[in-house]
Amino acid sequence: MGRGRQKAKHTKVARELKYFSPATDYSALERELTASHHDHDDEMSKWAEYADDESYVPDDGSHRS
Fold first, then answer.
1. Which residue intervals make up region (Disordered) (predicted)?
2. Using an 8 Å Cβ cutoff, are 29 and 35 in contact?
């Protein structure tokens, strides 16, 4: 009997999330995107010395020898 209530609550929450549409502040989005573009260039220049280092192998499991 408890499972029915739990499922109903999950369904209600899922439906609210699906149809919820908050107001979008496009000017704030534009500021964020233009600022991140400039920050990205700064970040890339900070790590440029590592970009050409062929001896570097990432330890994320994607490189197999």
1. 31-65
2. no
